Known about the structure:
Blueprint: H1 7-13, E1 53-56, H2 59-70, H3 75-89, E2 99-105, E3 112-117, E4 131-132, E5 135-136, H4 139-143, H5 154-165, H6 175-183, E6 185-186, H7 189-195, H8 205-211, E7 224-225, H9 228-240, H10 249-258, H11 269-274, E8 278-280, E9 283-287, E10 290-294, H12 301-311, H13 324-344, H14 355-358, H15 361-368, E11 400-406, E12 412-418, E13 428-429, E14 432-433, E15 470-474, E16 479-484, H16 491-503, H17 509-514, E17 518-521, E18 524-527, H18 534-541, E19 548-549, E20 558-565, E21 568-575, E22 582-585
Parallel strand pairs: 18-19
Antiparallel strand pairs: 1-11, 1-22, 2-3, 2-12, 3-8, 4-5, 6-7, 9-10, 10-15, 11-12, 13-14, 15-16, 16-20, 17-18, 20-21
Helix pairs in contact: 2-3, 3-5, 3-6, 6-9, 12-13, 12-15, 12-16, 13-18
Amino acid sequence: MSLFPSVNTLRALIIAGSALVAATVAGCAPLAPVEVTPVAPVSAGVPRAVGPFVSAANPLAVAAGMAVLDRGGTAADAAVAVQAVLGLVEPQSSGLGGGAFMMWFDAETGAVTAYDGRETAPASATPDLFWQDGRPLPFPDAVMSGRSTGVPGAVAMLGVAHADHGRLAWKDLFGDAERLAREGFIISPRLGGYMAATRGQARTEWANAYFIGPDGQRLTTGDRLVNPSYAETVRILADQGPRALYEGPIAEGIVKTVAASPRPGGLTLADMAAYEPKVREPLCRPYRIYVICVPPPPSSGVALLQLLAMAEHVPDIDAGPDQAPAWVAFARLQRLMYADRDRYVADADFVHVPVAGLLDPAYVAERAALVPTLTGVAEPGLPPGVTATGADATTEPAGTSHFFIVDQWGNAVSMTTTVESVFGSGRMSGGFFLNNQLTDFSFEAVDDLGRPVANAVAPGKRPRSSMAPVIILDREGRLVGGLGSPGGSSILAYNAKALIGILDWGLPVQDAFDQPNLVARGSGLGADTDRFSPELQSALAAQELRLRPNASENSGLHGGVWRLGPEGWAWDGGADDRREGVIAGRIR
């Protein structure tokens, strides 16, 4: 039997309204006491989903992850190796100097855990961090300043996840990254394209020193890039553990680089030493006959869940990928979702985020009822529990990666990782780029009406993130799959497209990932125009959705679902054809 029946079969399995209640899945924390309507088990007679399986954005990283799994490592072990290699071979997207969110599925207990490795603002940060001479800095100037760098969180987060779930020794997880850094690796077309940029982070003094070869010529696609500093950094991390990034010479190098001109930042050794990743309860909610789990704020996973919940009230979504009504509905759902996300989501340790209200069944139905007649920009709603919050002024650039790993026991990691913009701040220390994550805060702390902005800067605060790595379960709490994407604020649109494509339209994972992207946020409407047929474009234009080329970072969806193939149960995996990723392991 297929794990993914048709839409009509799904409908027959669900009593009306059941998808608006919370799932009582082990490890998932419902926001309020609710009752789940019983449904037929999704996976009756289906063997437990097990690996090995890796989907990531670079073949060298996939190979490193598979090598760890082959040695008897868990998905948490493999995640350390994958991140260490990605930070070397895909430095425009993620690295040791950045942050991440990880979703962990524990096959033995069925628990889902959210690990928050988002960067934090230094103790010296003030609401006017990115102001100068009485006005906000131009965004590129803010990005490349020392002020943009928060305390990196990815390494500390991986350290905690490894301590919780690893089987191999930490010191044995960095061998591929160290070897590739010392011996060099071949520059891929994507990295080579970003290195060739004539301005911005690719042309800082740090980037120039790295990207210019011994002959004085700038390296390019196909050349070998050697990074002895990175090799030494990962050797130290392997020998001394994750805290070596936050204390001692590596931390001192980071702080020194942040303090360099122009516009030095206030990050200190005390800020570095004080960093702690968060282990949080995930947000898990039903969608059709499945359960979708994402990280809570400051991740924007709640917005993804809200869009899916609204979609269950909108029959046009079921029309499928070749029909204009489905894409019209998808665009309007996004506009409603983004309006709420941009107004209300921030670091819930600092401000009230109305998570329960955004997912409240009555509120979801009220918002979804706007879809048939919505035109143009959507205004934020008033979910239950909302407080007076100002209009947001956050600009969210792109530079992120996602990977999904399943080990031989069926444990899974879905992790989205970033240095924020391309090559982060453009500043390097220890062979890796430093993040510009603090530019994910709103540059303005109050709006024109004097209302406080939820995502304003504060000491120790984590900026709001669109990263929303997904774990998919069935209603019995068993692993079905996982996915995620880079893309700046468009991440939510990309993840939603993939989930709808797989779970609603019944597409193979690769086909779902490769479907056209459509991003509708505020007044913007970006799309992969070359992937929409002329007929679809005309039909959308007739509904006031005239497609324009996507101006945001494109998707990099990676993940998989457990499906029955010709040779038995295996992973139906995907690696977005817009990137350089691959899949490996027990695949169809």
